[in-house]
Amino acid sequence: MRLFIAAELPEAVLEALAETSGLLRGCIRGRYVSSDSFHITLAFLGDVEGSRVDTVIDALDRGCAGFAPFDISLGDLGSFGKRSKATLWQGLQGAGDLPAIAQSVRASLNTAGIAFDGKAFRAHITLMRAADLREGALPTPALAQGTVERITLFRSDLSGSRPVYDPLHVVCL
Ligand code: ATP
Ligand code: MG
Prior knowledge:
Elements: E1 2-7, H1 11-25, E2 29-32, E3 40-47, H2 53-64, E4 70-80, E5 86-94, H3 98-112, E6 124-132, E7 145-148, E8 150-157, E9 164-172
Antiparallel strand pairs: 1-3, 1-8, 2-6, 4-5, 4-7, 5-6, 8-9
Helix pairs in contact: 2-3
């Protein structure tokens, strides 16, 4: 099964992201992430054997141990990839303990022998994929802050017309 570990976002932040997404819908063409799916990926594991899921859960619990809830605040829009087919995201102005938790969870996955994508962690919330940024200016994003309280192991199902993320295990900080 396809797995990733992500920070779930506070309500005020989700509302601001939905507002930013609404502004983008007026000016940028591409594939929009549905408003109930916004998250910050800390580690992308990809395909994992069902028999290894308990090991992943254990590693996630260990990696999050000792962390308490912390505040984050939204920042500017940014993009990865080609301007004709970009991944468009909203970044954070304040990431709180997210980088430290990402590092700790990844170290814990390493210790458990669980593979993941090793690209450097960069906190962002993807709002669009295959975005055409070649014309039209980006809007000024809505801003908000709030407290991150949950780090979650998600199963990602890409078989349908849009990705479905299913929580398998939640760590309450
Ligand atoms: P789709 O792939 O259909 O566009 P998606 O990207 O939302 O949908 P997944 O590919 O399962 O769904 O990705 C789940 C999460 O993991 C997303 O936040 C995605 O950005 C992130 N992710 C996917 N692949 C990688 C990767 N190779 N490295 C880091 N993060 C990744
Ligand atoms: Mg993807």
